[in-house]
């Protein structure tokens, strides 16, 4: 799907499953099932080939895992620039609700995909549901680190449950969807783990991420970040880049952009206030950084969102 096609398609699809059936993805062999819980979710089993496509934003959390992906590399872009990795069996691939995504997949892979409507998530979680699911799940956007086999197993079990409508099956479907949503929210809350080849332990990485998130509206000094991990500044900067593929500065700017996206969804907030809340020097600095990351000014991004 070309970028102009994506612009035309925005808001045109009621569900990710509908988009999958009618877009360029229809060229790939696929099966569809409806999960009959208290509210319906959709699942797709697809054998993808090499492709470069774009997905529109939908009011659903899209959770998937590769069942097989022999030597398949891929890239994704969800508005903050391109990132990439290897598609490995059991990994978690997630698109938050109301987020457009672009994909470049270098080879064949078989995926099982679950799309859960936001209304269903809210009904399952009740008062525990985050006000802004897109922002809450943003740390998992694209591909996360491996070792999410529990999520992969749940997705496969849910697919096996299929379209059964008898009462016990509906209760089981709801419990499995709830378990999946809770798993990804907890994983997102813990922060994105660095790649397995990185130098950070999970505990050190969580401490660094927690420090960044709690100080986003302030100036974050590299020596303070290095002290959080207990390393020298030079060693920290080198290991941070090795683990994340980014400099600490670029990583912090990306986190500020993502927090700003969540605030831009609230039309009563002024751009100048959002800029200061997210740690930008002023509105001009915010606009420049946001446009560099997304290709849009904050005002245009908000208008297109609404």
Automatic annotation (TrEMBL):
Residues 206-304 form the HTH araC/xylS-type domain. SUPFAM superfamilies: Homeodomain-like. Gene3D superfamilies: Homeodomain-like (1.10.10.60). Keywords: DNA-binding, Transcription, Transcription regulation. PROSITE patterns: HTH_ARAC_FAMILY_1 (PS00041), HTH_ARAC_FAMILY_2 (PS01124). It holds the Pfam family HTH_18. This is Helix-turn-helix domain-containing protein. It comes from Aquamicrobium soli.
């Amino acid at each position: 799907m070309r970028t102009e096609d994506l612009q035309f398609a925005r808001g045109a699809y009621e569900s990710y499953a509908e988009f999958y059936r009618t877009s360029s993805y229809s060229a790939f062999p696929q099966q569809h099932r409806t999960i009959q819980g208290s509210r319906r979710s959709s699942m797709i089993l697809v054998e993808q080939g090499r492709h470069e496509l774009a997905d529109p934003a939908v009011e659903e959390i899209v959770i998937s895992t590769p069942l097989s992906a022999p030597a398949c590399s891929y890239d994704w872009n969800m508005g903050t620039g391109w990132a990439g990795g290897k598609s490995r069996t059991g990994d978690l691939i997630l698109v938050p609700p109301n987020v457009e995504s672009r994909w470049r997949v270098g080879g064949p892979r078989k995926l099982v995909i679950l799309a859960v409507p936001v209304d269903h998530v809210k009904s399952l979680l009740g008062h525990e549901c985050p006000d802004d699911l897109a922002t809450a799940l943003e740390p998992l956007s694209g591909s996360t680190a491996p070792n999410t086999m529990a999520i992969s197993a749940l997705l496969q079990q849910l697919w096996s449950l299929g379209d059964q409508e008898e009462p016990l099956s509906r209760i089981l479907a709801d419990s499995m969807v709830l378990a999946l949503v809770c798993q990804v929210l907890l994983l997102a809350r813990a922060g994105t783990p660095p790649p397995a080849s990185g130098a950070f332990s999970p505990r050190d990485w969580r401490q660094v991420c927690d420090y960044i998130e709690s100080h986003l509206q302030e100036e974050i000094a590299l020596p303070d970040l290095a002290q959080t991990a207990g390393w020298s500044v030079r060693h920290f900067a080198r290991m941070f880049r090795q683990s994340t593929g980014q400099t600490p500065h670029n990583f912090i700017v990306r986190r500020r952009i993502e927090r700003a996206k969540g605030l831009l969804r609230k039309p009563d907030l002024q751009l100048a206030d959002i800029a200061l809340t997210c740690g930008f020097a002023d509105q001009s600095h915010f606009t420049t950084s946001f446009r560099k990351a997304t290709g849009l000014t904050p005002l245009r991004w908000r208008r297109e969102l609404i």
